[in-house]
Amino acid sequence: MSVAIDRRLEAARAVVEDASRLALAMRPPSGGPSGSQKSAQDWLTEADGAVEAFVARRMQELFPEDGFQGEEGGSVRQGSLRWVIDPIDGTSNFARGRNRWCVSLGLLDGDRPVAGVINAPALGEIYTARLGGGAFMNGKPIHASPVTDTRSAMIEMGWSNRVPKPVFMEKIGAILDLGAMPRSGGSGALALADVACGRLDGYIEIVINLWDVAAALIILEEAGARVSPFLREGGLTGGATILAAAPGVAEALSQATGIPLA
Description:
Blueprint: H1 2-26, E1 36-39, E2 42-44, H2 46-62, E3 67-70, E4 74-77, E5 81-89, H3 91-94, E6 102-109, E7 112-120, E8 125-130, E9 135-137, E10 140-141, E11 154-157, H4 165-177, E12 181-183, H5 188-197, E13 202-208, H6 210-223, E14 226-227, H7 231-235, E15 240-245, H8 247-257
Parallel strand pairs: 3-5, 11-12, 11-13
Antiparallel strand pairs: 1-2, 3-4, 5-6, 6-7, 7-8, 8-9, 9-10, 13-15, 14-15
Helix pairs in contact: 1-2, 5-6
């Protein structure tokens, strides 16, 4: 199986690089948002559909036996190995011509993340990992932050219109009470990648979908981060809560926010 996963990861990285170039070419100019709104602050652009269709077609040609699930198209193929794509994660940034967005493609073996690629072309960063093989950014090993004091920690929290304002404010308050510095960057996949490489010490989102985290889950695991049981808590079939954190602050962050760790 490891040989099969290696072959798929190598192919996925090449396909995602091509898809990222397509997305970069379609990125709107800087300014007010381009595209349509699905709901408050939830944007859809022409590039979302084009990138997903491109990757779906290429992966079917390469691995016709594999399943495939996309944010825009839903579950379009079944298979014991399943690719899950977010064609543009950080669409609100992308729609304004900003740089913080990515193409994210993860591979699951049943309910087990086994490989992932996150490509942020405007930032020049590619994150990859496979089960048991380590995590990398641009080919160099990455590891979660060594921070152990929450008063030195930088924590990002994602926002969703599906979360009541009091719940969001409660979690933000818990972060502030720890003495940590809150952040919000508009891309869940890249925030999780930042936890994996130590740029952030934690990331929380109360409701997030599988396509946002499918690639990041294995990257986090291989980088030594602690993560809540997202898939076991409903993440395979719907929105669920995620907490990812550096080992030295994970327990404190979990206790403060009430989000259990795996």
